Amino acid sequence: MFQHTNTMHGHSPLNLFRPSMKLAAFEVALKEKKHLAEGTIAFIFEKPNEFHFKAGQHIRMTLIDPPETDSEGNSRFFSLANAPQEKELLIAMRMRDTAFKRVLERMQIGDKVCIEMRLNSPHGSFALHDDDRHPAVFLIGGIGIVPALSMIKDATSRKLPHPLFLFYSNRRPEDAPFLDELEHLAKQHPSFTLIATMTRPEESASSWQGETGHIDHSLLERYVDDLTSPIYYIAGLPEMVSAMKTVLKDSGVSEDHIRAEEFSGFSMDHRGSIGQHGSMSRHDATHSKKRMRPLLIVAMVLMIIVAVNLHTVGIIFLSKIDFSAFSLNNPLFSVVIGLFFVFALFKLKYVLSFLHRKKKQSAPKISKG
Questions:
Q1: Strands (E), 50-111
Q2: Which DSSP category does 268 fall into?
Q3: Which domain holds residue 262?
Q4: CB 204 within 8 A of CB 174
Q5: CATH number for the domain that contains residue 57
Q6: Are residues 77 and 159 in the same domain?
Q7: Does 55 reside within a domain?
């Protein structure tokens, strides 16, 4: 094990690892691979004796001399799915066609990767709160289960007094990573309640007897007595996280009681359409945004060109009008003036909206974890 402060590879989305931050790096060998759900694989690595982490914490994985690479690079951020007490390191991910994941999927038992982690355990969004008077309620979509599973396993293993509720949304049982393990944990530990819900149970090969539909206020109210008391942990695609925040705020939950983690990306379902739960890799989100930047720039340039042309046409048109023919009593003059004010108001609204969006985009992002 060695320590360093600024040997960084690839990108650091959301400032998860800053150059001045002290890190610990380890080379760890692959011990096992197994399929968790459709399109989802677990990679189990050896755990060095010096490796200590807090439940819900993330690490950065870097491939060592990979046989192929692409523009997304050789490093990704992942949350660990296992509890700190366990003897191995477990990483789970939705598979998609990138060089990083192809190399990882083809790795042989004994092959090594480099993992890096913060030396100081996080005290941020995905670390279980200390005050057990407040239940912990997890609102999870798909592969977002990974940090939640780590926290739940840790809490039940240490017999913490926190009441734990997991609302776990997937399309079908076949798409739900760790569902069997979660059901077993719920049977073994009375403090932990699992509420699994399927949004497309009719597409499952087996019959589903549990909850159906998306997580909403009605579902939460059926299982949690006082919705304003718990601390909520949300993980999933950005759309799911945003929807859950809205549900909680509409239910009177304070923003101080909401912790959120977004996992972006996509997965292809069994019919080839885009699925609702993405990869755990936080690098995917950052790279996706970078791919969108050139398109946004092109769109803005086109909008400017169109606006300039419209203004030019308008100036030419106005220059050819004999305004002496107009008067305040002329109905046509009133129509022209009215159209001018409507256009001016539309432009003002657009400019204000644009400035508001730019202000939100330039707001500093808080590092999670």
A1: 58-63, 75-79, 88-94
A2: B
A3: 136-280
A4: yes
A5: 2.40.30.10
A6: no
A7: yes
* CB-based contact 263:143 (threshold 8 Å): yes
* Signed CA dihedral, 364, 365, 366, 367: sign only: negative
Position 124 in a domain: no
Residue 217 sits at the vertex; the CA angle it makes with 58 and 187, to the nearest 5 degrees, is 60
User: Within this chain, do residues 65 and 194 fall inside the same structural domain, yes or no?
Assistant: no
- 43 backbone φψ class: left, alpha, beta (φ>0; ψ -120 to 50): beta
Phi-psi region of 137 (alpha: psi -120 to 50; beta: other; left: phi over 0): beta
Is residue 221 within 8 A of residue 247, CB to CB? The reply is no
Residue 304, in any domain of the structure: yes
- What is the DSSP code (8-state) at residue 302? H
Same domain, 185 and 229: yes
Domain count, the chain: 3
- pLDDT of the chain along its 369 residues, tens only? 433 333 333 333 334 445 545 788 999 999 999 999 998 999 999 999 999 899 988 899 999 999 999 988 999 999 899 999 999 999 999 888 889 999 999 999 999 999 998 766 544 567 899 999 999 999 999 999 999 999 999 999 999 999 999 999 999 999 999 999 999 999 999 999 999 999 999 999 989 999 999 999 999 999 999 999 999 999 988 999 999 999 999 999 999 999 998 775 433 333 332 233 333 344 444 444 444 556 667 767 777 776 666 666 666 665 666 555 555 566 665 666 667 666 667 666 666 666 655 554 444 333 333
Half-sphere CA count of 19, side-chain side, radius 13 A? 1
CA end-to-end span of the chain, whole Å? 22
Rounded (5°) CA angle 235-139-166 = 120
Q: What pTM does this model have?
A: 0.67
Which alpha helices (H) appear in the chain, and where do they start and end?
Answer: 99-106, 145-157, 179-188, 217-223, 238-250, 282-319, 331-362
